[in-house]
Every structure is written in structure tokens, then in C-alpha cells.
Amino acid sequence: MCGIIGYIGKQKAAPILIEGLKRLEYRGYDSAGLALSEPSGLFVCKKTGRVEKLAQSMMGRSSGSTRGISHTRWATHGGVSDENAHPHLSSDGTFALTHNGVIENFGSIKKFLLSKGYTFQSQTDSEVLVNLIAYHYAKEPKDGDHNPFLEAVRRALFHVEGTYGIAVMCRDFPDQLVGARKGSPLILGVGKEEFLLASDVAALITHTQNVVYLKDNEIVSITPDSFHIANGTRENVSPIIDHIDWKIEDSEMGSYAHFMEKEIFEQPAALENSMRGRFSDDNSTANFGGLNLSAQELRQVDRILFCGCGTAWHACLIAEYLIERYARIPVEVEYASEFRYRNAPLDKNTLVFVISQSGETIDTLAALREAKRKGYRTMAIVNTVGSTIARESDGGIYQHIGPEIGVASTKAFTSQLLVSAMIALYLGRLRDMSFTDGRDFTEALKSLPELVSKTLELAPKIKKIASEYKDHADFLFLGRQSLFPIALEGALKLKEISYIHAEGYPAAEMKHGPIALISEDCPSVFLAPQDDMFHKVLGNMQEVKARGGKIIAIGSEEAEFPEDLPDHLLRIPECHPAVLPILATIPLQLLSYYIALEKGCDVDKPRNLAKSVTVE
Ligand code: F6R
After folding, report:
1. Out of 2, 45, 522, 575, which one is annotated catalytic?
2. Domain 253-446 has CATH 3.40.250.10
3. CA–CA separation, 173 vs 8, rounded Å?
């Protein structure tokens, strides 16, 4: 949600910033802008719309500047306009700033600054912050050893309530960038004779794989030769330089038309990576290096709470189903945004798990912090290495699927389901699950890449169905037991990328209200593999058919359907119940992708959305 990239080094900054913004565009695409340090002062160019528009505006302008900051915006305060785009200049032209996050007390600060003669061009909270920095700078002594630029940023941030990840430039200090974070991610890229600041690893990867993840309240000052990090109380911080093992190709589309398509089709490999090295065949169980809890401690856990948002919340629902079924531990699931403000009574033997692809979702992070504050052990299932949630949880499991760039989550979801299944296996084997049941479970998980590849072969058939159904305005997605959350996920995918209204329900619940929607115009997608619920689901399908509703059924190879019951039948491979939710997800991802394509929607950048929601 909003992307920042800053550069200081020996190369021309503008092309580096624009390339970085293109890689960050999935974080927000309302507007884009950059500021360069030039001999005449700070040059700013910003445009509503996509980064490409900014790139075109910069085309005729050759700037030799080797320092700059830039931003791609997802609007919070203030509408989508050139004025509200970042970077913002202070009204005296001394500072340029890019900001992610929300300054909650911006109203009172703005009032104060207006009384001091500062003026504002935009409606944003960020412009208030850059002027507050200018205000403190004007008061700083300009002689002696201390750095008035850095000091002004520090003093301004002291008065700020809310969240920020910022990159700042000062006209009077052309050889310096300052960055700081609280609640919004900021990463320092340490290159050869160059440094970068970014909100996301994806923006840095073509320049360096060496990064420092800044912590909350840290402030970094960068020159072309060195950097220095201090914490909120001015103490020096010894930087830990981490190495990112993503490859450049991981963040590129290759031969695919969209990141979403690439990420759907790379699921066999992604799942392979999520499970690599994590099985113990001798014990028929899973292994996790990062849980930081002994087997004895895990046996004492008598309740687990899962929290997440959106698609990750759907993964939590599947985790509930799997852990209760295979490990017999009671599980509850909360929306992270609700849990953080609820004073839910938890027992001391409760373990709290959060699930987050980005590791930066603010509500999930807040839920994690709330659970920690109350003394619970916290675990995270996270994809982004070094992210705030990964660092702040007591232990956890990385998904290892490389960057997910399509705004609609696909490979991250199926990997979260896989990791949840592995946790169920691990906890089950510490309790009642037999060696042979553990072995069957393990074998089922290991076969997933192959089964997913086979399921992906349905793509051409699904494409045809998509062209037939693209003009429908409403859809129902129906499933039972572990496939109910998959119905929710199928509905969410369709809504978010094709703007078609869709709802997910437990199939039997349909009779209690949603059945009123059934007509020729509202098709139902039924999850109906050959499992314990199959005959019940057939009954629910008959109820739809009797009312003239069209049916797209996701069945399994052996499922026998009465003739003409489903209008379209997509068969997934027969499989172990623990992996069924993963296989059942694939056709729904493809259906939403192809319908969105048919409708001409911008699949990777759906309207109003952004990846990684770092505001409340
Ligand atoms: C939907 C989607 C979102 C995210 C949600 C949580 O396709 O991607 O619903 O799942 O914003 O994001 P993370 O997992 O990064 O915490």
C-alpha cells in the first residue's frame, strides 16, 4: 500500500526510480511521482495514474542527478490528483518527502503550521509532515557537528502520532537522504557505491540483495559512501545486513500475460518450495525450524487462535478445520481487524497464530502485538522474509514462495493451506495421529505439486466457461466443511478482479436466504468432490436446478453426477481430504482470472485495491 523508493549513488537516479516504481506499482497505482536533487534545487514531477505516465513525462528531460526519492500512491487522505501525489515539497521548497502510512494528528499540526505562515497545496497528511520538518529545520542551529537535516526530521517525527515510512531530501544537503519508519515498512538496500531506500524488497532486487530491515522508530541517514542508523533515543544501531535469496526473475512476468497468471501456474513449484526439507519420513511428520516451541510445550497447548485478513483469513478457516480434525485441538478464527479491538478472553495455554503473505498488514500486525501484550505465545505463517510480522512473532514458518505481485492472492493462499496442513500433521503426530495415518498424510502432501499440475490442465475448459458467464452480474459459490472457506475465497477472487458481485456460503445454508437470488441470471459454483458430503451437496444442487439456476460443479474424478445436473463439470484429481481444499481452489482462481480477462479488467491492478494493506 503505497511504495517508496529512494536512490543515492553514482548512477542517474531517475531511471532507477522509475524502474523501482514499476516493480512497486502493485502497492498502489493512483498516482506516481519523483523528486531529484539538482543544482538548481529540488525538482519534482508527479502525475495521477500509472507509473508509465510519469515515465513519459520524464522522457524529454535528461537529468544527471544521482540522488532522488519517489513514490507510487494508494490514496488515503485526499483524492486522486496531481497535487495529492507524492513527493511533497515543503512550502519553502527546502524539503521533499514521500510517505507511507497515516499521520493521525495531522489536523492539529496543520493548524499550528498555518499559524506560522506555512502553506499547503494538497489535502494530504504527508504535506503536513514535510512542512513540520521544515519548521524544525528553520529552528536548528546550522553550525557545529550536528546534522540539522537529520535533527529536523527526528524532531518532527517526535510530534507525530500515527504510522510512517518516509524518505526525505533536503535542498541544502544534496548528498544525503534520510529515512525513518514506524508502523510502515522501510528497507535499506546496501549496494556497491550506492544505497537505496524502499518499502519493499521487490524494488531493490535488481540492484542489491543485501538489505537492512529498519525497525520501528529507527532513522537512517545515507550519503553516497555510508549510512548510519539510530533509534528513537539517538543511540546508534549496529546494522544487521540480511541477504535476500529472491532471484530477479521471481519479480518479473516472463512469458505470462499477467503476474496473476504466472502465480497461478507456478503453484506446483511454489508448493514444492513451501514443503522442501520439512518432512521427517522416519517419524511420518513435518519439521519446522522456526516454531521455537518444544514438543512438550506444544502438547500443553489446549487452544489455538488464528487471525488474518481477507484471503489469509480464509486460510485461517482452513487451518481451523485441519487442526481440529487431525490434531483434535480446538481452534478459533478471528478477523485480525476485529480481534485487535476485542478483549477476547484467552487461556494461558492458548497459542496465537497469524497468517500474512506480506507480513506487513497493519491489522494483522496489531492483532499479533495485542496477543503478545497479553502474554500469549505468538506464531506467524508469513511469506515475506524479514517483514515486521515475521520479526515480531515469537516463532513461525516462512512460506518460501518468492514474491507474490498480483494483487489478488493465489500462490500465497495455497501455500498457506499447505503450511496449515503441515502444522495439523505435526501437532497431530504429537498427539493421537498414528504413524500410518501420518505417513498417508505426508505422502498426500508430497504429491501435491503433481496433483496441482494436473488440475491446471483444466485451464482451456475453464476459459470457455468464463467466456460464457462473463456477463453475469451475480454468482454464488457453495461448498461444505473444508470447502466452505474455499467457496468464500472463490467469491472474493471473482469480486476483486472482475467486479462481479459474488457470495460464498456453506451449501446447505443457501436454503436460509440466498436461494432467493437463484435464477437463470445467477449461476452457482458448487464444490462437489467425492467426499463424505457429496450426496448432501448433490441435494443442494438439485434445489438450485429446480429453480432454473445454472450450475458449474467442481467434482472429482470418481464423483458420479446425475445426468444434466451440473451445466458444466470440472473434475479435479481424487485426493486425501487434507489437500482437497488446495486442489479445489485452483479452478476457482482460473475462473476468476479468465472472467476478468474476458471483461477486459486490469487483472494485476484491480480498481481501488493495493497489495499489502498497511493502513487501518
Ligand atoms: C485478496 C488478498 C487480500 C489479502 C489481505 C491480507 O486476494 O490478497 O485479501 O489476503 O489483504 O494480506 P496479507 O496476507 O499480506 O496479510
Report:
1. 2
2. no
3. 12
Q: Specify the ligand 1 atom closest to the Cα of 413.
A: 10
Tens digits of residue pLDDT in 518-567: 999 999 999 999 988 999 999 999 999 999 999 999 999 999 999 889 99
Pocket test for ligand 1, best of 74, 311, 384 (most atoms within 8 A of CB): 311
How far does residue 27's CA lie from ligand 1's centre (Å)? 12
CATH, range 467-616:
3.40.50.10490
By the 10 Å C-beta count (0-12 exposed, 13-18 middle, 19+ buried), 146 is classed as exposed
Where are the strands (E) in 123-170, listed by range?
Answer: 164-170
Please tell me the distance between residue 612's alpha carbon and the centre of ligand 1 in angstroms: 7
Evaluate whether 3-244 and 467-616 have a shared fold: no
Q: How far apart are CA 119 and CA 366, in angstroms?
A: 35
Share of the chain above pLDDT 70, in %: 100
Amino acid identity for residue 324 in this structure:
E
Kindly give the distance from the C-alpha atom of residue 466 to the centroid of ligand 1, in angstroms, as a whole number.
24
Task: Give the pLDDT band (50/70/90) at residue 104.
Answer: very high
**Domain-wise residue ranges, the chain:** 3-244, 253-446, 467-616
Set of cell numbers at residue 490: 472463490
Count CB-CB contacts under 10 A for residue 225.
10
User: For residues 145 and 124, what is the distance between their CA atoms, to the nearest angstrom?
Assistant: 34
Please, what CATH class does the domain formed by 3-244 belong to?
Answer: alpha beta
> Residue 407 CA: which ligand 1 atom is closest?
8
3-state helix, strand, coil in the chain (%, to 5): 40, 25, 40
For residue 581, give the nearest of 572, 590, 591 by alpha carbon: 572
Q: Which of 258, 309, 340, 388 to mutate to test the pocket of ligand 1 (most atoms within 8 A of CB)?
A: 309
Please write the tens of the pLDDT for every residue from 213-253.
999 999 999 999 999 999 988 889 999 999 988 777 777 88
2 is a catalytic site residue: yes
Would you call 611 a catalytic residue per the annotation?
yes
State in Å: Cα 43 to ligand 1 middle. Answer: 36
